[in-house]
Amino acid sequence: ADFTVFAAASLRDALTEAATVHEASSGDHATLVFAGSSALARQIEAGAPADLFVSANTDWMDTLEQAGRIDPATRADVLGNALVLIGHGSAAPVTPDTLDLPALLGDGRLAMALVNAVPAGIYGRAALESLGQWDAVAPLVAQTDNVRAALALVATGEAPYGIVYATDAAAEPQVSVVMTFPQGSHPPITYPGAVTTDAAQPQAATAFLTWMQTPQAQAIFARHGFTAGG
Amino acid sequence: MDWLGPAEWQAVALSLKVALWATLCSLPFGILAAHTLARREFWGKSLLNGLIHLPLILPPVVTGYLLLLTFGTRGPIGAFLQPLGIVFAFRWTGAALAAAIMGFPLMVRAIRLSFEAVDPKLEQAAATLGASKLWVFLTVTLPLILPGVLAGAVLGFAKAMGEFGATITFVSNIPGQTQTLPSAIYAFLQVPGGEASALRLVLVSIVLAMGALIASEVLARRVQKRVNGA
Amino acid sequence: MDWLGPAEWQAVALSLKVALWATLCSLPFGILAAHTLARREFWGKSLLNGLIHLPLILPPVVTGYLLLLTFGTRGPIGAFLQPLGIVFAFRWTGAALAAAIMGFPLMVRAIRLSFEAVDPKLEQAAATLGASKLWVFLTVTLPLILPGVLAGAVLGFAKAMGEFGATITFVSNIPGQTQTLPSAIYAFLQVPGGEASALRLVLVSIVLAMGALIASEVLARRVQKRVNGA
Amino acid sequence: MSVSVQITHTQGAFTLDVAFEAPPGITVLFGRSGSGKTTLINAVAGLLRPQAGRIAVEDHVLFDSARGLFLPPHKRRLGYVFQEARLFPHLSVRQNLAYGRWFAPRSAPRADLSRVVEMLGIGPLLDRRPAALSGGEKQRVAIGRALLAAPGLILADEPLAALDEARKAEILPYFERLRGEVPILYVSHSAAEVARLATTVVVLDQGRVIRQGPAAEVLGDPSVTPLGAREAGALLLATVKHHHDDGLSELDAGGHALFLPHVAQSPGSTLRLRIAAHDVILSRARPEGLSALNILPAVVVEVRAGDGPGAMVSLDTPAGRLLARITGRSATALGLAPGVRCHAVIKTVAVAPENIGAPRSAEEQP
Amino acid sequence: MSVSVQITHTQGAFTLDVAFEAPPGITVLFGRSGSGKTTLINAVAGLLRPQAGRIAVEDHVLFDSARGLFLPPHKRRLGYVFQEARLFPHLSVRQNLAYGRWFAPRSAPRADLSRVVEMLGIGPLLDRRPAALSGGEKQRVAIGRALLAAPGLILADEPLAALDEARKAEILPYFERLRGEVPILYVSHSAAEVARLATTVVVLDQGRVIRQGPAAEVLGDPSVTPLGAREAGALLLATVKHHHDDGLSELDAGGHALFLPHVAQSPGSTLRLRIAAHDVILSRARPEGLSALNILPAVVVEVRAGDGPGAMVSLDTPAGRLLARITGRSATALGLAPGVRCHAVIKTVAVAPENIGAPRSAEEQP
Ligand SMILES: Nc1ncnc2c1ncn2[C@@H]1O[C@H](COP(=O)(O)OP(=O)(O)OP(=O)(O)O)[C@@H](O)[C@H]1O
Ligand SMILES: Nc1ncnc2c1ncn2[C@@H]1O[C@H](COP(=O)(O)OP(=O)(O)OP(=O)(O)O)[C@@H](O)[C@H]1O
Ligand code: MOO
Ligand SMILES: [Mg+2]
Ligand SMILES: [Mg+2]
Fold first, then answer.
1. Residue D350 has pLDDT above 70, yes or no
2. Which domains does chain D carry?
């Protein structure tokens, strides 16, 4: 059957590859729709023809669940990600214990996604808070509308440092990972998935969601830098 | 050309279709609105003028969100039109609607300026020769504002080719249905290493829009030449 | 008014400042470009025309990214300007530059149409009376294209008030420095339940832009009246 | 078809306040620059809605403020030759000429395109656009466009001003022929044109009608001479009697022979002649051996001293009322006074071609 | 200051190919509609760059294709009255008038604003914008704008076409006075204007000069009569002798008295008179008892039969060469042939005011 997946834009490559593999085994064709989680969530609320939603953000999934637009029984955290501090070029690594961001930055900026609105920014802020760096760094933060733009700021050297997902940092030669934030320093970064209540192909969607949690699928995601969900 | 995948070709074709329809369908309304603003005095004219400019003033995401709220299947207008077989939500028609609305202020301004430049004495002359208001418009005013109409159409078309925020917010990014070139470019930019693919699409976008631009210039020059002599 | 927080007021003030400077500073260039396109024939004219339209055609993110690459502190132009004390990165000046460039095609089109509507016979008459090219321009052409210049300025201003994608990509979102109204609105829309706050800012945005719109119409009418008699 | 106009309209510091009845034929509006001629014509065309008044062509009311009636211009079946040509810049000369035809009722009598084109001498211009025409060429195309619209009312605002004498001489007869068919309001500054064309003359000054009436009366009235004394003259009717071999035509004016350069009309037809007052010489005795061929016996009706050294002498002749403008000194020397008999000498060629017109309408024929 | 023009220029199907030298004074360009007058003037103004040729005012070369020299219009110190007014719509009448002054060199002699305004009768219009002016008012402002630019060369393309006779009569003397100061190229269709103003006449036809020369010569040449036979006439020079109490002025023309309505010039000054050929009556015997006061003895030089029933008689009089247009029949009846003595009768008032001009320049005074 043909079914439609609304997924966070950052999942584009990984999910495309996974869906191709899945189609070969199941015969179900997935139409993949990538956009910001917030846009997708609103569209599903407005009746978009999505069978499955994979969000980068638990808040939006919660909102849809409260609105009764997803089937709570199918909801599962399918993927995880790590948060890293990156530097322009080949910056020297630091450890969480010795991290002194204000000193590192000097009069440079720290690039992050919007710290109140975009998941990567929210996680980053939480991490800095728990490491006791936020208050000192806050005035130096340059916020972008998505993680990729923050990455671009560091890649071009406009900002010496930035906080992005590990998946983003991996493929950008102009930046180096300076530090990976400890798991406990921020809420777990999870990508929840759920089948929508209006789904035209709930079976196929559920099957795909289930398959995504199999080791075969998780291996694909791991290759793109994602960690296991939950 | 094999440096674009089938999905990308689809996006190119869709973008052209969307931009063409958006331009063609909004043109009569654009001329009407421009005429109204240039030639009539009425209560609420400022309001109409403001309304037309709204998509320029608001962040595209807001326009897209408002479109989703009104023209979505659950929105007041969307729900009204659906039984008539007119559906915008998550269809290419919706992308065209979004593009048309975003380009409308540009189109109207250009045409309005042309209206204001027409010498009313020529229209009077036509009236003394027996032409009714409609005929005066068709045989004198319209030919004389043709350069402005062309300029308006080209602005609308270019804007439609580049429109992204409102479109992706309103009709999402469904391959083959609503994934236009800018949405595809956006999706590429959201994943690590997608820049090269995005660049390819940017080039295609530029080539197409330039073609339209040059064609319009050639046409406009021909029109102008006919008026200026020979 | 206490229904807007201090950060929001800051965004309002900044948006106005950015839009005003963007409009005023780009106006001379807009007039120059419009004049060049309307009156001169030269090799590469199509290219220049295309270049000016580029920000309309490309998704704003791309424009912002290109700005970052050229006007960033490490970009060729940015690096050149920096020693002169002209810095765009993470400054409101950068936001103004982005807004100006995004609004430039709209401005140029409007002014160009006005140039094309000026009767060259009047300019000839001025020349026979001893006015050099520059004086002809200042005393005859410019007053006659004033309505178009106004229209162009208003389009540019409105666009500057609404510009978001290129701005946030280029100069990110630093409260008080580069957080314009659209960035603030966008941020609100990214989180569930942020609609009410976004709506407040949208209303402010509309009121400001409408004010500019109405002022421009009144001004344009006065100019027109002087020409049409009495 | 008569035209009746009564309007009041104020624009800026200027108030137009006119009322006149124009009988069938050509009504010439005459007046100084800024006296309101164009404003008046625009009101008749419906391009301007007067603040009050009534405009009608025969029984066909175009405007009546009392009844709130205002016929839009396109329903008035006009042929308006504007003071500035106002050609459509995007249309070729041919398309400009044809424009009015598209909208004329099928049944309307149509002027012949090729004939009008030939009369106006615009044949070689048909495929050009207005931008490539000279000033006079534009004006001619504008005349053609109005004439070809099969109008029921012609408005012409100084249509011949930009043209040379030879071209004027070719176009004037066309207007003359139209005189019997369509009512015409015609603005002109040229006394010769007025004399030749006008059935009725309406003289405007500062927005008011200061004189109106049949052309012969207004032009022949020495007390008015609105056109400046030099332009005063009388209109005579004469019948063609014979065309002589030496190129002269002999006419009968009240039983006396008048010789003119060959006229086109066949024997028996009636012509209007304009005799300018300054072209008449008076003599008590019948002069002999003069090169002037036309000598009419006359009786002085009135001698009116002008503001200068001149005097205007009204004369009764067998051919009708005549005006002669001479010096006061001569009037005294010749002892001219009402009742005195004398002879009026008119140079043959002083009866200029443009002052020879076809009679205006049947009822005027003697 | 003389003007020398030699240009070739092709636009569309029309080729302008002219060469002429205009001595100081007013050079009138005369020719039918579409003959190339405006094109020629535009070339002199620099609004059009001819394909080849040379244009110079005295030693000041404005254009020379051989040397690749082309002075832009704003460096030519022009006062151009366009065929259509071309007023600046965004400026008031006052600002339009002042426009050229901004750019005139400080040292240039300046026409007096209030005097020009009064002459043109545009005082009440100064604060209006062009859109609120009548056709003739626009044209008058355009004339004022050109005159007030302190020009070194005046180009006037039918400047008086839209004006009434009275207004023309007020403006013509101004151009006359300028004749000695600034070279003027003047397009006109009016024979009266030509006769009154022209120092030199250049007759154009289909883009070529078919006749050029001093006004008296071109206008007095019966073989050319480019203006149509009716307009032929001769120019005489006469000296004011005395102003009589009855309003007549007595002039001396070659020892013979001529009587004219009062002229403004004081005794001793010299005038040009235009005597239209059709205003002259011939008689073998000296006629007596005529109202016409001016009778000159004359000797027939030539009798030229025209294309119609008329004949043009050239006469030698003590006052100069005179033309008389009479019928062939009269010529035969009077036995006119070269060498025959006769008398030329000229009606006093036929010497019309607009044909009385100040002499053109010092060297022409007799
Ligand atoms: N842009 C053009 N292209 C081609 N031919 C032109 C153009 N402008 C004028 N002409 C032709 O050139 C000739 C001369 O025009 P010009 O305007 O000099 O005439 P003119 O003597 O001023 O006539 P008028 O008395 O009617 O104003 C005309 O035959 C006209 O049709
Ligand atoms: N829009 C206007 N506002 C105010 N006054 C005007 C307007 N248009 C014309 N006038 C004035 O009205 C008067 C009559 O103008 P109109 O055009 O009827 O004159 P006209 O008799 O046609 O003159 P002309 O022979 O110069 O064309 C003039 O004094 C003019 O200044
Ligand atoms: O693509 Mo996201 O869901 O905004 O990081
Ligand atoms: Mg008028
Ligand atoms: Mg001309």
1. no
2. 3-219 (3.40.50.300), 233-357 (2.40.50.100)
Ligand 5 ion: Cβ-proximal residues, 5 Å cutoff: D 134-135; E 38, 83
Where in chain B are the domains?
Answer: 6-228
Asked if E118 and E150 touch (Cβ cutoff 8 Å), the reply is: no
Which of the two residues, C229 and E265, has the higher pLDDT score? Answer: E265
Which of C169, C228, C202, C211 lies closest to C11, judged by CA?
C202
Q: What is the CA radius of gyration of chain C?
A: 20
Say how many Å lie between the CA of residue A36 and the centre of ligand 3: 5
Q: DSSP of B48-78, one letter per residue?
A: HHHHHHHHHHS-HHHHHHHHHHHHSTTSHHH
Chain D hits for B130, Cβ within 8 Å:
74, 77-78, 100, 102-104, 149
On whether the C6-228 domain is CATH 3.40.630.30, my answer is: no
Does E137 reach chain D within 8 Å, measured CB to CB? yes
Distance from CA of C138 to the nearest CA of E (A): 12
Q: How far is CA E15 from CA B50, E10, E18, E39, E190, in A?
A: 55, 4, 10, 10, 25
Residue carrying the six token digits 């992706």? B168
**What is the whole-number distance in angstroms between the Cα of residue D153 and the centre of ligand 4?**
18
Residues forming beta bridges with residue E294, ordered by sequence position:
E346
Give the B window 182-201 contacts with C, CB below 8 Å: 182, 185-186, 189, 198
Cα A146 to ligand 3 centroid, rounded to whole Å: 6
Residue C56 DSSP SS3: helix
ipTM: 0.86
**Is E9's C-beta closer than 6 angstroms to any atom of ligand 1?**
no
Nearest CA to ligand 2 atom 6: E132
Query: Which residue out of A32, A37, A54, A163 has the highest number of ligand 3 atoms within 8 Å of its CB and is therefore the one to mutate?
Result: A37
B143-155: per-residue pLDDT in tens?
Answer: 999 999 999 999 9
In 3D, which of A145, A80, A89, A87 has the Cα closest to residue A112? Answer: A145
Q: Where is D225: in which H helix or E strand?
A: none
Overall average pLDDT of the D279-285 stretch: 83
The C-alpha atoms of residue D161 and residue D183 are separated, in whole angstroms, by: 21
**How does residue D155 score in pLDDT terms, banded at 50, 70 and 90?**
very high
The pLDDT of residue D333? 81
Shortest Cα distance, chain D CAs vs residue E277, angstroms: 10
Name the average pLDDT for chain E.
83
The mean per-residue pLDDT over the stretch B111-116 comes to 93
Residue with the nearest Cα to atom 7 of ligand 2? E132
A168 contacts on B by Cβ (under 8 Å): 192
Nearest CA to ligand 1 atom 18: E36
